[in-house]
Each structure stands twice: as C-alpha cells, then as structure tokens.
Amino acid sequence: MEREREIEAFKAREYWTVEANLATEKGERFSSELKQREGKKFVPSSKEETDAVLAGIKGKNDFVVASVEEKELKKTPPPPFTTSTLQQEAGRKLGFSVKQTMVVAQQLYEGVSLGKGQGQSGLITYMRTDSVNLSQKALSDAAQTIEKLYGREYVLTEPRRYKTKSKTAQEAHEAIRPTEISRTPESLKDVLDHQQLKLYTLIWNRTVATQMAAAELKRVGADIETGKYTFRATGQTVLFDGYFRVYREGHDESEAADRNGGEEEANGEKILPPLSEGQKLTCEEITPEQHFTKPPPRYTEASLVKKLEEEGIGRPSTYAPTISTIQQRGYITKDGKQLVPQEIAFTVTDLLADHFSDIVNLKFTAKMEQSLDDIAEGSQKRNVFLRGFYNPFQALVEKKNAEVRKEDVMQERELGTDPKTGLRVVVRTGRFGPYVQLGRLEDLSEEEKKKKVKPKSASLPKSVPKEEIMLEQALKLFELPRELGRMEGEKLEVNTGRFGPYLRLGKTTVSLPKDADPYSLSLEEAKQIIQEGREKAKKAAEPLKILGKDPETGGEIQVKDGRYGPYVTDGKTNASLGKKLTPEDVTFEKAVELLAKKRKRGPVKYRKR
Predict the structure, then answer these.
(1) Residue of higher predicted confidence among 470 and 265
(2) How far is residue 530's CA from residue 514's CA, in Å, rounded to a whole number?
(3) Residue 156's closest CA among 235, 214, 94?
C-alpha cells in the first residue's frame, strides 16, 4: 500500500537526452550521450534547453576526446539459492509465481523415477532455507563437474564460500542445490516435465556458477568535448567469461531503472574503438529525445519477496503462502506480473494503521520474528511472550470494538436521497470493492429484518472512481438487475458485478460485449448474446485432435486448448504440451508418453518440516 500511494503521489518530471553518433577517422562508429555543461552535470529539462544545446553544437565537427579511462575488473557469481532468491530469480527468468516455484521445487525435492533401475531419487536439497552454505561434498563435486565440462581454467584454487547478509537468517538447512551436481539438466530432460526441467536447470546453473572462476571484464569510458558540452561514451569487453559460461543473474525492473543510463550490464558487451586524448572525431548525427520520469514500479511477486526479506518479515516457509493469501482474499490482483492493490486493501490498511498502528508497524513484525527465534532457542519463555502480547492486544480490540463505527471503516459518503423511496443513497467500500447502497439496515421493516433482507446495492463499474460518483449515476445502477423477458422457459436478466455487466439465464452467465449497454439492451439482443456465448463455449470444449485410445487406461486421448495452453487428456489425466510442442506436431506416441509421465508423478505432496 505504501508503494501504491507513492505512485499516486508521484508527479512526472520532463527531461531530455541528447545522443551524438560519432566516428573516428577510420570510420569506426559509436554513440555517446550528453552529460555535462561547462564541467557540471547537465540534463536538459525542457525542449527550449535542448534546442539551445543543438544550436550550440549543430554543424560542428570539433568533437575532441578529452580523457580516456580503462579499468579491468572481476565479477564474482551471486551466492547459491535460498528460498527467497530462488523465488525471485524464478519469477524474473522463468515467469513463475512464488507458489508455482515452491510447488515445482517440492516435486524436485521429493524426486522422480530416473528409470533404468535407478528408482526414485530426490533431485534437490530442502527448498525452505535461508542459508547460502554448501556442504564440503557439494563443493568437491562442483569442482570435478566444472573441470570435466568446462576445463581446468574455470576451476577455483580454493572453494568459494558465502556468508548470509540477512540478520534474521536461521541457517537450519544447506542452500538449495542439486543433490548430485554431476547430474546435469541434459541428463534429466527425458524424466522431467517442462517446468521441472526449467527450475532444475536454474538451480544447477546457479550452484555450479558459484564455484567457477570470476568473469574478467575491461571497461572503457571516454569524455568527448565540443564547446562547453561534454559527452560520455562507455564500452565493455569480456576478457574471460568465467562463470558467465553458465549463469547470468536477472534483475527487477526497479533495479534496471536505477542503473545509470547508457551503462552496459556487467555481463554484457559494448565495444568502443581505440580512443586517445586529443583525438578528433566527426559527429554524424545528433538525436534529442524527450522523456518523463517514471513512478516507482509496482511490486512483482519476486520484488515483494525481496522486500519482505529485507524488512525481516516472515521466513522462507511463509513468503509464498503470504502472497497467495492476499491474492485469494482479493486485496491484490495481478496485472501481468505486477501486483495491484484493490480498494478493499486501502480500507483494511487504513483501519489497521489508524487503530492498530503498533501491530502493523514493520519493526513490530521483525521484532516478533526475533522473539519466536529466541523461544525456539530456549532463551525466552513462550508463555511470558504470549501473555505480553495477548493481554494488551485483547484490551485494545475490545476498546476499538466499542469506539469504531462501521460507517467509518467502510469510508461511507452520502450522495443524496432517492426521490422514489426517500431513502439515503451512500457509496462505501466493501470486501469486493466500492459499491452504492440504497438505505441502511435501520431503514428496513421488522418483517424484512426477520427475513434477513439486505438494503439494495450495486457494484461500481471500474471506470467510475468512488470519489467521483454522483447521485444520478448511483440511481442508474439500482436499475439492475433488469428482467428482459423469458428464454427457453427461464427468466433472462441483465445485471452487473465485479467484472462488469452480464446476462443470466438460469445457471448460465455470459459477459456483455463492451459496446452493449445493460440499461437499454433488448430481449432479442440478449438472446443473440446468449447464443453466441454458448457457441463460443462449445467451440472451446471441442478437441483440436483425437489421437486414439490410451493403452493404459482405455480413455480416448484428445488434444485440447486450455486456459494455460494446449494439453493432452485421456479424460482423467491432463498433461501440458509445454512450449516446444504444438498441437499439430503431437503424435499418439508422444501423447501416451506425456500422460504416462504425469500419472507416474501423481498429485503434488507436501512434506512437513
């Protein structure tokens, strides 16, 4: 919620970049960017300032190299995976949610049948850990595997060991790694499904990279002057790839945005031609470009896990359930990878911040985690800690129950009076977002209260902000649901809900097209929309291909298109085709193989700590 309010309060600021495409006498071309004016940092903030820059240098070919800096550096690999870093990297590189990452990691931990008499084997170590330590055996196995696959020059003279940066780390388990480092992803491609192979490959690559030689880079920076302006050109070459051979770390969008403009990634290349002080250059083109500063990005699941760990909130076993819970309760929804807070989240957060500020303070949560660790270690008594929390907390809850009104919590705003009924019309926030309500519970008759009748209400369309809705709009919303007539002996009505206007016929619901008006929709138009919806649903249910009978179950193997892409099914077991296989390419034999693998794995089981 803090991030969302930062975004709402953000005011974009205009700025311009000026890029000069330069060339040496030999015709070697490279780009540079305006950085200084009269020796001071300078970023044009308007078109007028940019035009002044262009007027000052346009048509001039007196670009001269003022200074050249060369620096060689070594880049070491990131540490082995903890739960947090695995969830972050799987989100960035594989597009996995934190829940999906943990489900697939659980499958790898419990193991799969390797075939050829090898039996069931766990493929990775325990996946709920905050440790970056590797066992001595893992270090030795990694060195042997690296020498065998990549050569002696990639092997360290001494194993590389890492220390955790987290103050709250318990380090009860080893880092997440393959149980046998010699077991390469390539050797498992026939026994793992697509998602399992992707995650195993990520873990194997990261583990092996931690014990490989550092990458060696050469960075070059050149300042180029023309009149009172200084342009900067940067370049980078990889002298020795080292661990880059197997692994390149991903970054969050926010991290990428924070990096200096024009600077290359530490694991990328941008080559500059040989330059020397006093060398004259030709300017072939100057390109100005307008930009606006961007608000801080919304959290993704990966960046939220990182933030939780930084603040000392939660443990490796709680990151995924926490993020899943706030989604299931409707506090946030996903827009692509971004987590978007809903109206109810603002209401709940404001309520807690106003009345239970100590409880929702980040320091309280981190301190409580430390107390729980102390209890586990025996340095603090459980009952003393619980009494110290619950006694004042219970008293506070009772006090707030008596003080806080429901209308205040739901941020109620009165819009006016309904001329037909004389009842007040209010807008408020509920569990599923903002809505308008006609009257209150106290306005109902005793008979209505006995029958548990509720005041009439209607959800606000997403296009209408709660702060801007007027009485006339609210009264219009109360016209729904609207009965249109009968179809096939059942009532056909149009209504609106959380996801917009829709038609209901018995148990069938069909969303209205965007250009359909629920307040003027006719019976005939509604019947046509229902029919089109049925045809669309029928088409989606029809198989793309029928391949034959499954030799194991006797079920008819069909290729279908589902919510998460094409898959094969025998009526009981479903198996995804993955990204490499298309419905056109899948054969009967391949479908049988996919279904057999899926049956062998069975449902996901969870092992308790």
Answers:
(1) 470
(2) 15
(3) 214
Q: Could you tell me the pTM of the whole model?
A: 0.68
What backbone phi and psi angles, to 5 degrees, belong to 281? -125, 155
Q: Quick check: 200 and 188 in contact, CB under 8 A?
A: yes
Phi, psi of 67 (to 5 degrees): -160, 150
Looking at residue 28, its amino acid is E
For 591, phi then psi, to 5°, come to -65, -45
Length in residues, the chain:
609
Determine the Cα angle at 114 with ends 106 and 564, to 5°: 50
Tokens read off for 271: 């080559």
For the chain, what percent of residues have pLDDT higher than 90? 52
Residues 296-350: pLDDT tens digits?
A: 999 999 999 999 888 888 888 888 999 999 998 888 988 888 999 987 888 888 8
Q: In the predicted model, is pLDDT for residue 100 greater than 60?
A: yes
For the segment 478-504, the average pLDDT, to the nearest whole number, is: 89
> Could you report the per-residue pLDDT of 413-425, keeping only the tens digit for each?
889 999 999 999 9
Residue 259 has pLDDT above 70, yes or no: no
CATH architecture of 301-406: Orthogonal Bundle (1.10)
Q: What is the pLDDT of residues 556-607, one digit of tens each?
A: 999 988 767 889 999 889 999 987 788 888 999 899 989 988 887 765 544 4
Q: Which CATH number fits domain 13-76+215-292: 2.70.20.10, 3.30.450.20, 3.40.50.1110, 3.40.50.970?
A: 2.70.20.10
Three-class SS of residue 21?
strand
Cβ-count burial 481-511 (b if 16+ within 10 Å, e if not): eeebeebeeeebbbbbeeeebbbbbeeeebe
Q: Among residues 472, 456, 452, which one has the least CA distance to residue 464?
A: 472
Q: Find the catalytic residue in 15, 109, 126, 299.
A: 126
CA distances to 526, 532, 534, 535, 583 from 538, in Å: 18, 10, 6, 5, 19
Catalytic (active site) residue 126: yes
Q: Which CATH architecture has domain 83-206?
A: Orthogonal Bundle (1.10)
Per domain, the residue ranges of the chain are 13-76+215-292, 83-206, 301-406, 413-540, 545-601
Sign of CA dihedral 562, 565, 569, 573: negative
| Residue 167: count of CB within 10 angstroms of its CB | 8
